[in-house]
Design a protein that fits this description.
Blueprint: H1 3-8, E1 11-18, H2 32-42, E2 46-56, H3 57-61, H4 71-76, E3 82-91, E4 94-102, E5 106-113, E6 123-129, E7 138-144, H5 149-166, E8 173-178, H6 186-192, E9 196-197, H7 198-203, E10 220-225, E11 228-235, E12 248-254
Parallel strand pairs: 1-2, 7-8
Antiparallel strand pairs: 1-12, 2-4, 3-4, 5-6, 6-7, 8-10, 9-10, 11-12
């Protein structure tokens, strides 16, 4: 079978979730182990995580269930041999940021600091994956944008510049994460960058993902370019509704 035929038939399952540093809403309970079990059961090929702890000495010291490894390494253990992490927020006893877990090789990655305020660290974690190990590059950008609209406008311009100026126009691209775009101002700008949102393509608009127990705001998204997306799913039922303050999203991506 020609390589082009093999590549066209390859399907990747992508999942994105704001991990809320391993805690339930209002930080009432530490549920990282339950989150790992749920992600394993969903069995995605690529996981995009936001607000994942790289290190937090004070908090982990007082939580018996806290893993010795970083949270992203703990989630990746045994199922996702490849992972990348980008620090967004650094404080005296630790840091947190975005992470990408992958069942396929990550050939390179770079974290772009798009923070506007020193009190709100934000980033774009760009990874290049080689899913068939035959020279095919798949670009994955894990996104966490700011709470203020003026900050998001600047950060979205940075994201669009990255997509338009740095990434090859003909290679597969997946952008997933927490856009905090509750006023839905991102759609027009990102469409001009040539990307489409998978839930908007299927349902007419992005889906409500926050707060998880009673979602009202459309904060989380999966955008794609040069691929076909199908089976967009909101992970809104239990146990997912209790594992974060955001609903997780997943989709199948055909290369």
């Amino acid at each position: 079978m020609p390589l082009s035929k093999l590549i066209q038939r390859l399907t990747l399952k992508v999942l994105t979730i704001n991990a809320h540093k391993g805690f339930t809403i209002f930080n009432r309970r530490f549920i990282l182990r339950e989150l790992r079990d749920a992600v394993r059961q969903a069995a995605p090929d690529i996981v995009c995580l936001q607000e994942i702890l790289g290190e937090e000495q004070r908090r982990t010291a007082r939580i018996k269930e806290s893993p010795v490894l970083s949270q992203y390494e703990f989630l990746a253990d045994t199922l996702w041999p490849e992972f990348a992490y980008g620090r967004n927020a650094v404080y005296p006893r630790g840091h947190h940021g975005n992470a990408v877990l992958s069942k396929y090789p990550i050939s390179t990655y770079k974290n772009y600091d798009v923070s506007i305020s020193p009190h709100e660290g934000r980033g774009l974690l760009h990874c290049i994956l080689n899913p068939v190990d035959m020279g095919l590059n798949v670009h994955v950008i894990c996104v966490h944008l700011g709470l203020r609209e003026s900050h998001r406008r600047h950060q979205l311009r940075r994201l669009c510049d990255l997509v338009s100026s740095t990434l090859p126009n003909d290679e597969p691209l997946i952008i997933a994460g927490d856009f905090n775009d509750w006023r839905q101002r991102a759609e027009g700008l990102l469409q001009r960058c040539g990307v489409t949102e998978v839930f908007a393509s299927s349902l007419g608009r992005p889906v409500r993902t926050f707060p998880a127990r009673c979602p009202l705001l459309r904060l989380d998204r999966i955008y794609v370019r040069n691929v076909k997306a199908s089976r967009p799913i909101m992970m809104a039922a239990r146990p997912w509704s209790r594992l974060s303050d955001h609903i997780a999203l997943s989709a199948e991506i055909q290369l």
